[in-house]
Amino acid sequence: MPEASNLSAVAETVGTVKGVSVIFNNFVIALFILVVGFFLGKFLGKLVSKVLKEITFDKLVKKLTKRNIPAEQVISFFVSSLIYLVALVLAFKQLGIAEKIFEWIGLGLIILVLVSFALSVRDLIPNFIAGVSIITRKKIKVGDHIKVDGVDGDVIKIELLETRVKTAKGDLIYIPNSTITKSKIEIRKKV
User: Fold this and answer.
1) In the chain, what is the greatest distance between 2 CA atoms, to the nearest angstrom?
2) Strands (E), the chain
3) Alpha-carbon span 131 to 20, nearest angstrom
4) Domain 125-188 falls in which CATH fold?
5) Does residue 2 register a pLDDT over 60?
6) Burial of 179 by CB count in 10 Å (0-12 exposed, 13-18 middle, 19+ buried)?
7) Annotated domain spans of the chain
8) What's the rounded Cα separation, in Å, for the pair 99 and 105?
9) In Å, how far from its chain's centre is CA 20?
10) Which of 18, 34, 35, 153 has the most neighbouring CB atoms within 10 Å?
11) pTM of the full predicted structure?
12) Predicted local confidence at residue 189, as pLDDT
């Protein structure tokens, strides 16, 4: 009977060592993939840059587009970055964490898009509501002379998001409607 318990203890130890060995091997392979990917990306990026310089690719692009675009740099950077990305994905896959990493990256991108949308809309809604208020109350009309928030001029156009004012110098100023409703305003009605 004691021999059976010794055998199970040895089997358990061997299983643990084998599991650690597999994890270590996967880590070493992933590290190797990253190192090879880094050197390969650097090498191919420089090679592409050299080939493009040899054929004077930037001059060709400038001739075609009439713009000075650093196409050689952009293309060599893209090639290097693509190889780095492939190496990173292969290393993550070797470690068995690629799916989780990409889930987190996807979630991060969704959050980034939502935050960007919220920041872009944060001024839209108050300006829209203020524009509706200005238009329906008819407190200000086209042709009125107003002074608001340091701007002094004649109202040219009232839209839902902004009001256009022409100053005495002839400058056009676009004032957000929420600024008009929140600020102290002086109005001289047109006669």
Assistant:
1) 112
2) 145-148, 151-158, 162-167, 172-176, 185-188
3) 67
4) SH3 type barrels. (2.30.30)
5) no
6) middle
7) 2-97, 125-188
8) 10
9) 39
10) 153
11) 0.52
12) 78
